[in-house]
Amino acid sequence: MHKAIRWALGAMLACPLWAVADYTVVQVAPFSGSQEVTGKLLNQGINLVFKDVNEKGGIGGQKLRLVTYDDAYKPEETVKKLKDAVADKPVALTGLVGTSNMLAAIEAGVFDQLGVPVVGVHTGGTSVRDKKHPLIYHLRASYGAELEKLVHVASTVGINKFGVVYQNDAFGQDGLAQVKKSIAAHNSTLVGASSYDKQTLQMGAAADAMLKGEPGAVILVGNTIPAINFLKAYRDKGGFAPVYTLSVVNEREIVTQLGTQYAHGLGISQVVPLASSGVVPMNREYQALLKKYGPADARPTERSLEGFVYAKVLVEALRKAGAKAGDPAALTKALEGMNLDLGGFSISFAPGQHEGSRYVELTMVNRSGDLVR
């Protein structure tokens, strides 16, 4: 046998297929379009952890490498970019965004094709969780838990008539179903529901529907730009009911574009502790890394903190997997048995139970345009 061939065969036997030079992680997310801020902030939080780990020598001497793809929040692009990512040979995926995007990827079979864990996705959609895909690990509470929190808090102050504005896709339909369930559980009434097209984001008809129904509170199942458009249309038409929305909304964009006269009083559920608070040890670590690695004008945000959580959990799983961290089976096993305290924020997985967190709290935009509990 030729010496070169004997050497190559020996190297292959000595180096298992799961051994890698570094750990490549792929994020397919919107870095353009209506949800680009979400994609970029998740990416910021992930990178804070990766940079810190790499500066300290990596994991077992191997560095973390984050490869990003822009899907512009379009489900068909999510599928396409995930297929492109096969060539990167990632050990894991993280930071994907969108209920419809995740459903499209599941139905297209691309997660099965990649065959690696998906650690942290930016959706709380029940329709995604009900698929129980064995490679997807959720690190945020469900939209059902968030919406239950919003209805419960409103009910405690005497509100019993609700209006719902929702995105006309899987995300919005899922949210509408969850709101109806919570309203019924609190013996309250749905007095109006209006959908909007996520391509046009026009909110005039939704504002009119809420004015007609005269709810005690409006729950918006949508993202940041729809929230901006609805708040302006509803308030300009004379709507005065409090508006509550989900954690996927970025209050800084609303304050920047509309000012506090529109944003003040907006209630937003959160699936991580208030990022600006230093009470939780995890937050203090996040804030320190943001100051060290982030841009000079960076300020703590819940989306960036969420990305930080994704990365911390993935790093812990890679460490638990040890020398076999590049092997999807070993990484999955490490995730399946995880009970992790990140410092006042706990994550727990088990075989068949991939919802790692049920944490939800309510925040509100104050007169200064800041989030407060």
How would you describe this structure to a colleague?
The chain has helices at 3-14, 36-55, 75-85, 99-108, 110-114, 126-129, 143-156, 170-185, 204-213, 224-236, 251-258, 260-263, 281-293, 302-321, 328-336; strands at 23-29, 64-70, 92-93, 96-97, 118-119, 121-122, 136-137, 161-167, 189-196, 217-221, 243-245, 267-270, 339-341, 346-348, 361-365, 371-372. It is an alpha/beta fold and 373 residues long. β13 and β14 (346-348) form a beta hairpin. α10 (224-236) packs across α11 and α14 packs across α15 (328-336). The longest helix is centred in the first third of the chain and has 20 residues, at 36-55. It starts with a helix and ends with a strand.
Layout of helices and strands:
Elements: H1 3-14, E1 23-29, H2 36-55, E2 64-70, H3 75-85, E3 92-93, E4 96-97, H4 99-108, H5 110-114, E5 118-119, E6 121-122, H6 126-129, E7 136-137, H7 143-156, E8 161-167, H8 170-185, E9 189-196, H9 204-213, E10 217-221, H10 224-236, E11 243-245, H11 251-258, H12 260-263, E12 267-270, H13 281-293, H14 302-321, H15 328-336, E13 339-341, E14 346-348, E15 361-365, E16 371-372
Parallel strand pairs: 1-2, 1-3, 4-6, 5-7, 8-9, 8-10, 10-11, 11-12
Antiparallel strand pairs: 12-15, 13-14, 15-16
Helix pairs in contact: 2-13, 2-14, 3-4, 7-8, 9-10, 10-11, 14-15
The first-level CATH class name of the largest domain: Alpha Beta
The rough form would be described as globular
Share of helical residues: 40-55%
Compute the CA-based radius of gyration.
22 Å
Question: Could you state the CATH homologous superfamily of the largest domain?
Answer: Response regulator
Number of strands: 16
CATH fold category name of the largest domain: Rossmann fold
User: How many structural domains in the coordinates?
Assistant: 2
Report the span from N to C terminus. 72 Å
- Average pLDDT, rounded to a whole number, is 93
Biggest sheet statistics: 7 strands, mixed
Unreliable runs: 1-18
Strand order of the largest sheet: 9-8-10-11-12-15-16
Portion in beta strands: 15-25%
